[in-house]
Amino acid sequence: MARTVIVLNNPVLKLADTELELATGVAYECQVTEARVTATPNYNTIPSTGCAGATQSPGLTSYSLDLAWLQDWSAAGGGLSGWADDHDGQPAWFEFSLDGGDATVKATGEVYVTAGSYGGVFGDGSPAAVDVTSWPCVSRPVITKPAPVGTQAAEAAEAEPAA
User: Fold this and answer.
1) Are 43 and 15 in contact (CB under 8 A)?
2) Within a domain: residue 1?
3) 32 in a domain, yes or no?
4) What's the pLDDT score for residue 152?
5) 107-110 long-range CB contacts below 8 Å, 24 or more apart?
6) Domain that holds residue 16
7) pTM above the 0.85 mark?
8) From the centroid of its chain, how far is CA 41?
9) Is residue 50 part of a domain?
10) Distance CA 41, CA 97 (A)
11) Residue 96: closest CA among 16, 160, 1
12) What distance lies between CA 94 and its chain's CA centroid?
């Protein structure tokens, strides 16, 4: 299989109050400096017994939408900073495409929003600080992938059980 490289030169990040509103959701990628859907493994501890030590088994993975953005409180409507502040503690929906030219590959999910920071370092001439936050996903986000081709398609078809 050939190497695939994804360069985040044209990402799209939309936020909305509901999943249906994502179609017309506000795009914030021009303020965002970093975005990722982070998978965090969870482990269940199986206690030790007289015959074996404690072990861990993997449970379901938790996800979060991790963002860093330039504070934009002075933008119309308060920008992403104002949106996050207005939605603090509330569920919201996101749609994140790594490349805006390829709408077939994207992550969509529901998160709990947390407010960002206000302000930064004084006197050094730099813009207001980059806000870094992690919004926990309500459930596993849906990551839409392209359809398999060639050998991958044949292997996928063989792996599916007969109806």
Assistant:
1) no
2) no
3) yes
4) 56
5) 107/37, 107/141, 107/142, 107/143, 107/144, 108/19, 108/22, 108/141, 108/142, 108/144, 109/37, 109/63, 109/65, 109/137, 109/138, 109/139, 109/140, 109/141, 109/142, 110/19, 110/137, 110/138, 110/139
6) 12-43+56-159
7) no
8) 15
9) no
10) 23
11) 16
12) 8
Tokens of 54: 């404690």
For residue 67, give both structure tokens.
Answer: 């963002």
Per-residue pLDDT of the chain (163 residues; tens, 9 = 90+): 788 888 888 899 999 999 999 999 999 999 999 999 999 999 999 999 999 999 999 999 999 999 999 999 999 888 999 999 999 999 999 999 998 767 678 999 999 999 999 988 888 877 768 889 999 999 999 999 888 776 555 565 666 665 5
Number of domains present in the structure of the chain: 1
Q: Which residue has the tokens 């409507």?
A: 77
Confidence (pLDDT) at 3: 86
CA dist., res. 161 & res. 104, Å (int):
26
140 located within any domain: yes
Whole-number Å distance between alpha carbons of 159 and 88:
43
